[in-house]
């Protein structure tokens, strides 16, 4: 496993070429090495834009200002894995082939032994030859998690990866991700305050227009957290900062 890397964002601002206004402005964040950091905010506030910026996936012509600093002084390029909301599995490839896809794109020989080990870790070793259409939504997301792990990058960007599954499956996937991604630096975008309260060691709320990042105080307890009094209190704080009224969150 590669060494964990801490990330610091300093006065980051992003403006799309097609927009007269900035999407993000003066964003300051610290993502501790080997820990989970979560971003929440209303729809369209720039959460995914931040992930795409860190992954080097911004559209041509997008203006980026500010600094992205790493704890080891090495740029993030080629050290980031991205796990999206959709599983993005290729329907014409079986599970094993989907997991090994990044190696094929990188011009490397597929490491089937490692792929089998990861499939076993996510509890899918018996479906290696199955195709995505034969799997449930939760199973497909576990394949996507195994594919992310196959890249073995020190930084993992996750864009609402568990939002499309039922509550019980989401809970199970959260626990699985914490266990298998241990030691990596995770930046998780989520709309779910409970998910952030369970998983995150650091939490930022994107507020305003253009958006800036407001940090929250997070319990020092080990993740994934039980939904105890502290976690519920944190969840209520998140909802309040997101502008929830009457227990409802308009950003959903």
TrEMBL record:
MF terms (GO), sorted A to Z: ATP binding; ATP hydrolysis activity
Statement: the UniProt record of this protein carries the keyword Nucleotide-binding: yes
Record's keyword annotation contains Mitochondrion: no
SMART domains in alphabetical order: AAA (SM00382)
Domain ABC transporter: 7-233
Keyword terms of this UniProt record: ATP-binding, Nucleotide-binding, Transport
Family matches, as InterPro entries: AAA+_ATPase, ABC_transporter-like_ATP-bd, ABC_transporter-like_CS, ABC_transporter_ATP-bind, P-loop_NTPase
Gene3D superfamilies in UniProt: P-loop containing nucleotide triphosphate hydrolases
Domain of life per record: Bacteria
Similarity comment: Belongs to the ABC transporter superfamily.
Annotated PANTHER family: ALIPHATIC SULFONATES IMPORT ATP-BINDING PROTEIN SSUB 2, TAURINE IMPORT ATP-BINDING PROTEIN-RELATED
Protein name per Swiss-Prot or TrEMBL: Hydrogenase expression protein
Source organism: Veronia pacifica
Phylogenetic placement of the source organism: Bacteria, Pseudomonadati, Pseudomonadota, Gammaproteobacteria, Vibrionales
């Amino acid at each position: 496993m590669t060494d964990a890397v801490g990330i610091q964002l300093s006065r980051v601002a992003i403006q799309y070429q097609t927009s007269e206004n900035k999407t993000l402005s003066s964003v300051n964040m610290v993502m501790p090495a080997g820990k989970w950091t979560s971003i929440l905010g209303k729809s369209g506030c720039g959460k995914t834009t931040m992930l795409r910026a860190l992954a080097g996936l911004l559209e041509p012509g997008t203006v980026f200002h500010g600094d992205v600093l790493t704890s080891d002084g090495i740029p993030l390029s080629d050290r980031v894995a991205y796990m999206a909301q959709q599983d993005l599995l290729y329907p014409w490839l079986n599970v094993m082939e989907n997991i090994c896809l990044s190696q094929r794109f990188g011009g490397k020989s597929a490491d089937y032994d490692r792929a089998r080990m990861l499939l076993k870790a996510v509890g899918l070793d018996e479906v290696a030859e199955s195709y995505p259409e034969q799997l449930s939504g939760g199973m497909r997301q576990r394949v996507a998690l195994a594919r992310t792990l196959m890249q073995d990058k020190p930084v993992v960007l996750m864009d609402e990866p568990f939002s499309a599954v039922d509550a019980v499956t989401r809970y199970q996937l959260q626990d699985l991700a914490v266990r298998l991604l241990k030691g990596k630096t995770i930046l998780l975008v989520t709309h779910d305050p409970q998910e952030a309260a369970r998983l995150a060691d650091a939490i930022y709320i994107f507020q305003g227009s253009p958006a800036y990042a407001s940090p929250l105080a997070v319990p020092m307890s080990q993740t994934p957290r039980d939904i105890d009094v502290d976690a519920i209190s944190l969840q209520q704080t998140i909802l309040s900062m997101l502008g929830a009224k009457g227990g409802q969150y308009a950003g959903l």
